[in-house]
User: Fold these one by one.
Assistant:
Number 1:
Amino acid sequence: MPIPGTPSRAELAEHLVRTRIAGDVATPRENNLSHYRKLANGDRHFWLGLELGDRWTDEQDVLAVMAERVGVNDDPEYRYGQDTIDPELTLDALERMAARLRKAADGEQRVLFATGHPGGLLDVHRATAAALRTAGCEIVVIPEGLTTDEGYVMQFADVAMLEHGASLWHTHSGEPMKAILTGLERTGRPLPDLVVADHGWAGYAGRHGVDAVGYADCNDPALFLAEAEGTVQVTVPLDDHVVSPRYYDPMTAYLLAQAGLDT
C-alpha cells in the first residue's frame, strides 16, 4: 500500500485521500462540531495546553478557522454526516513545516520531539528526529523522573511520550510538555529552539514561547486557532490515527524531501 520512495505532490495527495489521512476522513461531522462547541465553552481538555482566554467563545468563529485551515465543511447548518480535510491544505502545511525543519537543520538547532498520539504518529516523529540528527541538530534529551497526574513522561526513539501502566498513553494534555520545559529550566539547561509535536505537547510549547510545529485532526481545533494567532508556527491537518501507521510513511518521506533532509 505505501508508495515506495518519495512521492510527488500529486501522488501524495492521491495517497492521503486513498488512506483517509485527508479527504473524506473517519471523524464524523457531529464529533467535529461537538469539539468546537466544547472549546468555545471553555472546556480546557480541548484547549490542548494553550491559554485561549475569551478569544474563541463563539463556535462559529472556530468553525470558520477550521474551514479555512483544514477544509471542513463551512456550512454551520451541516451538522451530521461525513466531514473532510482538504489534502491540498495538508500538503501546504507540510511544506511550511519543511521550511521550519530546514531552518533548524541549517542552524544545527536543539529540537524536541513529542507525541500524544503514539499509536499513529510515533514513527513520523522518530524518522524526522533521525533526519535532523544526521543534519547536525541536537535532539533534546528530556530530564529524568518527570511525572504528571496521568503517568510518567518518558522518551523512546527520541520522542517524548506519556507512559501509564507500562503502556504508551494517548493524551491531549499540555502537562507533560510543561513538565519537560520546567524541568529543563530547573536544571539550568536551555530550552529547545523548536518543538515538533502534536496535541497538548505542541500547544503548551507554543504557549511557553518556544517555536512549535505540529499535527492535528479536524476534531482538535486548538492548534489551528493557535496557528491563526501566531502561537504555533505550523499545524498540519490530518487524521492522526488511521488504520495503519505505515500509511504515514509517504507523507514523512515528502516532508523530509521538501526540507532537504532525505539524503
Number 2:
Amino acid sequence: MGSIYLIRHGQASFGADDYDVLSPTGIRQAEVLGDHLAHLGLSFDRCVSGTLRRQQHTATAALQRCVAAGLPAPELELDAGFNEFDAEAVIRGLLPAMLPSEPDALDILRNPKDNRAAFQRLFARIIQRWVSGEHDQPGHETWQGFVGGVQSGLERLLAQAEHKQNIAVFTSGGTITALLHLLTGVPAHKAFDLNWQIVNTSLSRLQFRGNEVTLASFNSRVHLELLKAPELITYR
C-alpha cells in the first residue's frame, strides 16, 4: 500500500494583520519536522502543498532540512484543494446573526491574542453553525462546498499516485478535519472536536491502494515531544 502523510502547517501569525505567515515558532516546528523525517530516513516520492503561504513555507523549511541530511526531495507541487477554508469569511457571514447573544464578540475578535479562551469558544460556536448547514448564505463558502473541494484534491492526488508511493501533503487543520469526515464517516461536528487537537506540524497518515483510502494514524507530534520543549506544542 502507499502512504499519504498529512502535515499540518507550522504555527501561523495568530492575531497579526497577516495570519498567513509562519511565526518564528512555526519555522522552528517545520525545521524540527524535517530533522525528524531525515532521522527516520523517510523520503517522499511526491510532495504536495496547498497554495497558502504558511503551507508552502512549512514544506520548504522541512524539505530543506531533509536535503541537508542527504535525503532526496521532489519538487513541491501546489493544489488549492488542500487549502484551509476561509475562516474570516465564515466569521463575517455568520457573526451578525449571533451578535444579540454574543454582545462582546466584536471586542473578542479585535483582540484575539488577549482573549484566547473567549476567541476559541466563540470560534467553535461559529464553526458549529457553519458545519450544520442550517445558516448557509448565497455567495459564501459552505461546509459541504469546502468538503467537496477537499475531496476533489484527494481524488486528483490518487489519480496520479503510483503503487507504494510515499506522498507528503502540507495542509491545514480544517482540511485534515474534512478528510477525517470523508474517510471515517464521523459527523462534521464531531470531526471538529478532533480538529481543535491537531498540533502544528503534526503528521496524520493515510494508506491507499488504488482509490481505497484508510486512516492509519492521526496527529502524531513525537518530533516535537522528544525535544521536551512545551512551547513548540501549539494548536493555532
Number 3:
Amino acid sequence: MKSVSVSDRAADQIRPVEIECGYLESNPASVLYKSGKTIVLCTASVETNVPPWMEGRGKGWVTAEYNMLPGSTSPRKRRDRSGKVDGRTTEIQRLIGRSLRAIVDLNALGERSITVDCDVLQADGGTRTASITGGYIALALAVSQLAQTPDLDPPVDPTKVLRDSVAAISVGVIGEEVVLDLDYRLDSAADVDMNVIMTGGGRFIEIQGTGEEATFDDTQLAELLRLGKIGIAELTRLQQAQLNN
C-alpha cells in the first residue's frame, strides 16, 4: 500500500499524544489527555459502595460518564439538563464503561465502585477513543491509590484488580487508502470508519466499523485491523510510560 500524507504525518502514524497525570489538585487520579487537537479530562473517583443491585455479592463495579463541554465544538454544544442525556452520549459512556470493565477483576476490587468521568474540553475527532485511552490511566491511578490506603478492608492488590490495560484508536478508509487515527477532517471524508478497542496484551474488546454510503472488502478490513493494532501498541507504550513514572 502506497504511503499517503495525513496532514503532517504518515497514514500509519497516530496523532501527537500528550498525557498529564495528576492534573487536578482535588483528584490525584486525574489525567489531561491530548490526541492532536482533541483534549479530554479523565478523572476516576472511588466510592465505598456498589449499586443496589450488586450489594452483598462481594464484587465491585466500574462505570463511566462522558460529556462534551459547550465550548468543545463550534457551534456550541448544549448542556445535558435535568438528567436528560442524548443518545450519542449514552452510547459513548456505555462503550467506555464496557471497555474498562473488560480488563478489571471486579471480585478483586471488593464492594467498591469506581466512576471514570471523561469530559471533552476540545473535540477534533476521536473523543470516544481518547476517553477510553485516558480513562484507563485515570482508573489505574485510582486503583493504585486505593491499594495504598491504610487499614483498607479488604485490601486491594492492583495486579489482581487490573488484569491488563486498554486503549482505543480509530481507523478509516479514505478513497483507496487506509488511515490510522482520524481527526475530524479525515473522519468527515472517510468512506469507512472504525473504532478498535484492545487490551495491551493484544486481545480485542470491541470493534465498531461502518461504511458511510460505501462498502469494504476483506483486504481493507485486514488493513484496518493491522493499523489499529499498530496504534494500540503505541498508545499502550505511552500509557505504561506515564504509569511507571
Number 4:
Amino acid sequence: MDISIDFMRRLADAAAAETLPRFRSQGAVANKEQGSFDPVTEADREAERVIRALISAEYPDHGVLGEEHGSENISSRHVWVIDPIDGTRAFISGLPVWGTLVGLTVDGDAVAGMMSQPFTGELFYANASGAHYEGPGGPRRLTTRKTTSLAEATLFTTTPALFKGDARLRYDLFERQVQLARYGTDCYAFAMVAAGSVDIVADPGLKPYDIVALIPIIEKAGGVVTTFEGGPAERGGDILAAATPELHAAAMAALRG
C-alpha cells in the first residue's frame, strides 16, 4: 500500500506541536532504566500519543508499536512503528539532531517511513514514489553517494562505547580504515546516508522503533540497511547502513573481523 505525503506531513506537524514547545525548555526528565540512564520526557509521551491518534483515525485496522506507549494489534499485516523522539539525550541537551520517526511495515517489511526534524524544518520520507526531502534548500529526491571504498567513506556511530568486548576491537580496526569517523546524532546520521552526506552508520543494540522508519528512506535512496550479519533490520539489533552495496559488503566484512 502507498502512504501519502500529506499524511506524513500531518504526522510530522502533530508531533512538532508537542515537541518544539518543550525543546530547550528545561522540562522534567524521567529515567526509564534503573542502574543506567534512559531518559524520557513529556514531549516523548505526548508526541507519540498524537501520532497514534492520527494513525488510529486514518487506519483503524492497523497495528501500532511505539517506544513510549507499547503495542496494540501487532498481529495485523500492517504495523506502524513509532519513536516520537529518537535522540532524547540530544533533545534534553538542546541539540537539534533528534527526530520523530514513524514507519510502516507490511508483513514485517518496512515499506514507508518518515524522519521529521522540526527545529531545522526538515522532513525526510519514503513511500511508493521513492525517497524525498523537504526543507531548507527546497524539495528534492534523496540519493546516496556512490562511495564504494572504506578509505573514502565517512562513518558515524552513536559511540564506540556501545561495542563490547571483541566487538570493540573489531570496531576500532574498522574505524581506522575509513576517511572520517564521527559520533552521535542518532537518526540524523541515518538520514544523512540517504541525503548523500554520510556513507556508513554502524550502531549496535537498536530497537525496531529506532530503525524501521529509516530503512525505506535509505533503501529507496540507493543504500543498504541490514544487521551486521546481513539479515533484515526491521527487528532491530546491530544495524549497518551504507550508501552502496559494495560499501556495505566491505563494512560488514570489516565489522566481522
